[in-house]
Amino acid sequence: MSIMQYSYGADQPAHCSDEEWRLRIQLAHCYRLVDYLGWTEMIFNHISARLPGAEHHYLVNPFALNYNEVTPANLLKVGLDGQLVEPSDYKANPAGFALHSAIHGVRDDLHCVIHTHTTPISAVTMKKSGFEHNDFYGAQLFGRIGYHDFEGITLFADEKERMLSSLGQKHILVLRNHGVAVCERDIQRAFFLLWTVQRAAEIQAAGRAMGGEDVQLADEVRQKCADLTQQLIRNDGFAVIFFEAIVRKMLKAQRLV
Q1: Residue 82's Cα: distance from chain center in Å?
Q2: From CA 190, how far away is CA 110, in angstroms rounded?
Q3: I need a labelling partner for 110 at 20 to 30 A (CA). Which of 56, 69, 182, 213 fits?
Q4: Cβ-defined contacts of 80-87 (< 8 Å, 24+)
Q5: The pLDDT of residue 1 is above 90
Q6: Are the beta carbons of 131 and 208 closer than 8 angstroms?
Q7: Nearby residues of 93 by Cβ (< 8 Å), 6 or more positions away
Q8: pLDDT, tens digit, for every residue of 96-150?
């Protein structure tokens, strides 16, 4: 059995299409990868994946479960209003809907949204300068980040338009003094982007802790780095290979395969 068919013991429901089940497996892998890498915030935060169709339904984690308890079968299917489309024993966390439904409702090019606030990412969001672009990973993010001022917990619908305005046509939304949301056309690309943002934050935090002056990269070098990365990501195989490699590593480390 391919690792991308591994469903953590869950069976495909009779009413679930093969296309939706594949997406559910990928999203369950993504949740468990975030847990495996230590990027979770207990039961909080969200990863969402939009389902095909004009309804803009999307999948999200059941509130109260740890990320390593998420399976393809227990993921919630919700509408843009945050209401369950199918019955579940679980509820959804309302803090996720303002951000995720806003993006899924407007940006048809973005089908996966991952929100985290790891320690290095949250530390960077506190700085007025935000993400710097003077290291290998930070340079890949040049020109790709929108910044949104902190308004408290993202619970309220009236903040949606402001968050969308802050994101614009970019793929990374820094929620100042809070965390980050990365958005891409599929789960594999979104995970790769999150990994890049996390590495950039880790290196920036480590660099700030050291003495000495940083070497500043020219904007044209930063842009070249960002453009080359996007050329790789536009190749469907690159993000898939990366995603499947780390899923294999996780499953083997946990002796699940």
Answers
A1: 18
A2: 9
A3: 69
A4: 80/56, 80/104, 80/105, 85/55, 85/57
A5: no
A6: no
A7: 44, 46, 61, 63
A8: 678 899 999 999 999 999 999 999 999 999 999 999 999 999 999 999 999 999 9
* Alpha carbon of residue 121 to chain centroid: 13
Asked whether the beta carbons of 4 and 21 are under 8 A apart, the reply is no
The per-residue pLDDT for 106 is 93
Q: How far is 102 from 130, CA to CA, in rounded Å? A: 23
Contact (CB, 8 A) for 120 and 194: no
Which burial class, exposed, middle or buried, applies to 222 when counting CB atoms under 10 A from its CB (0-12, 13-18, 19+)?
Answer: buried
The DSSP output letter for 107 is -
Residue 41 φ then ψ, to 5°? -125, 65
Per-residue pLDDT reduced to its tens digit, 169-223 = 999 999 999 999 999 999 999 999 999 999 999 999 999 999 899 999 999 999 9
Tokens matching residue 78 = 């919700």
8 Å CB contact between 85 and 153: no
**CA angle 29-35-41, nearest 5°?**
130
Q: What is the rounded CA–CA span in Å between residue 152 and residue 164?
A: 16
SS3 77: strand
Neighbours of 153 (CB within 10 A): 11
Dihedral pair phi/psi, residue 233, rounded to 5°? -70, -30
Kindly tell me the number of DSSP H helices and DSSP E strands found in the chain.
8, 7
Residue 139 identity (one-letter amino acid): A
Q: pTM of the full predicted structure? A: 0.96
Question: Residue with structure tokens 């996007």?
Answer: 230
